Structure formats: C-alpha cells, structure tokens
C-alpha cells in the first residue's frame, strides 16, 4: 500500500465533499492531525477505520487502499454494450454500460453471460398495434421463474421485472433492430436477436 497515493486520494475526495480536515476528523471521532498525517503520506488509515472512511467519502475500501479511482473511458452512449447483474439473495437487478464493480447483499456481482435460445427458454414475439407482445413459455413458480425481460436498442434499455405466479408476458414499444434478453432465476440470461418475418416478428 502506497501511503502517498492513499493520502492524495483521501485529500481529493475530502475536498470533493467540501469538508475540512477538522470536519472529516470529527465525523470519524479522531484528531485532524491524523487526517493531516494521512494526506501528507506519513501513514495510512488503520484497518478498523477503513469502513467508516469508505462510507463518508463514498468510495469502496479497495479503491482507497489502491489510492486510485481509475475512471472508465467514455462508452459513447451505445446501449448495446449493456451488462446485466442479478442478486441471487434479494432479486435486485442492475445494469451498466462499462466496466464497473457492483455488489448487493454483501456479495460482488459478476455480469450475466447471455446464452443462446433453447427449447426450455423459447420466446415468441408478435406485433400488436405499436407494440411487441412477448410471450415466454416458461414455468413461473416461486422457485423457478423469469425474473426480467429487457429490450435493448442502440440508445435505450427497457426492462420489465416479472414475479412468480404471473404470466411471462410483456409488451414493449416497437424499436426495429433491437435485442431481447430474458433472465431465468435458475438458468441465467438468454439472448434473442430480432428477425423480421412478414407482418409478424418472431425470435
């Protein structure tokens, strides 16, 4: 651990929050001399203080220890690079369009890897008026169900959350050239490219 880098990061984050050394020290119940020592690279925060420091500065502990936030490059706004995350403990669903670190219920989440369609996860899509009507022939019990369906185009993501004991049916406004995703709580994420067949659209 490079105390100089850690100190510079703490100082930068403290100033972003508009806090003085004394104000940060007060929140942590330590002396402002300790904060000054850290920021000058003359020592690093004790392990017992890292959790509180992380909460106050709004930065993960590992980033504080590395002394560098390493911001991502701009993604150009292309939503087709979207990644999905799902928490197995609480069912929380999150998305990102770039490299990120996401955690929920105390666990770090890995991006879901989309799989190709199979007979157990077959989707049918019909055009009804100005919408896609998406039907998934899938069990919807409390132990085995489709958790969400998402439609991704170049500049947007529309995600509909589903719950056990309801039908696995959703409607999306028509956006040609998109990609459908469906997440099964047992078997993971499934990806379906849209193909046009006459006046009807199927997957």
UniProtKB/TrEMBL annotation:
<dbReference type="Pfam" id="PF01880">
    <property type="entry name" value="Desulfoferrodox"/>
</dbReference>
<keyword id="KW-0238">DNA-binding</keyword>
<protein>
    <recommendedName>
        <fullName>HTH cro/C1-type domain-containing protein</fullName>
    </recommendedName>
</protein>
<dbReference type="InterPro" id="IPR010982">
    <property type="entry name" value="Lambda_DNA-bd_dom_sf"/>
</dbReference>
<dbReference type="Pfam" id="PF01381">
    <property type="entry name" value="HTH_3"/>
</dbReference>
<dbReference type="InterPro" id="IPR001387">
    <property type="entry name" value="Cro/C1-type_HTH"/>
</dbReference>
<dbReference type="InterPro" id="IPR002742">
    <property type="entry name" value="Desulfoferrodoxin_Fe-bd_dom"/>
</dbReference>
<dbReference type="InterPro" id="IPR036073">
    <property type="entry name" value="Desulfoferrodoxin_Fe-bd_dom_sf"/>
</dbReference>
<feature type="domain" description="HTH cro/C1-type">
    <location>
        <begin position="10"/>
        <end position="64"/>
    </location>
</feature>
């Amino acid at each position: 651990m490079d105390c100089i880098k850690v100190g510079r990061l703490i100082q930068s984050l403290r100033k972003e929050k508009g806090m003085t050394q004394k104000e940060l020290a007060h929140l942590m119940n330590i002396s402002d001399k300790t904060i000054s020592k850290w920021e000058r690279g003359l020592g690093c925060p004790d392990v017992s203080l890292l959790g509180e420091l992380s909460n106050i500065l709004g930065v993960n502990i590992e980033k504080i220890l590395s002394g560098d936030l390493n911001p991502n490059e701009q993604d150009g706004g292309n939503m087709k690079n979207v990644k999905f995350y799902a928490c197995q403990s609480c069912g929380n669903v999150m998305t990102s369009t770039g490299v990120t670190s996401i955690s929920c219920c105390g666990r770090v989440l890995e991006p879901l890897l989309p799989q190709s369609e199979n007979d157990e996860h077959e989707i049918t899509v019909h055009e009804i008026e100005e919408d896609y009507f998406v039907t998934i022939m899938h069990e919807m019990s409390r132990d085995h169900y489709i958790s969400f369906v998402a439609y991704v185009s170049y500049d947007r993501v529309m995600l509909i959350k589903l719950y056990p004991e309801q039908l696995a049916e959703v409607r999306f406004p028509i956006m040609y050239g998109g990609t459908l995703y469906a997440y099964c709580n047992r078997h993971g994420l499934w990806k379906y490219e849209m193909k046009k067949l006459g006046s009807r659209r199927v997957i």
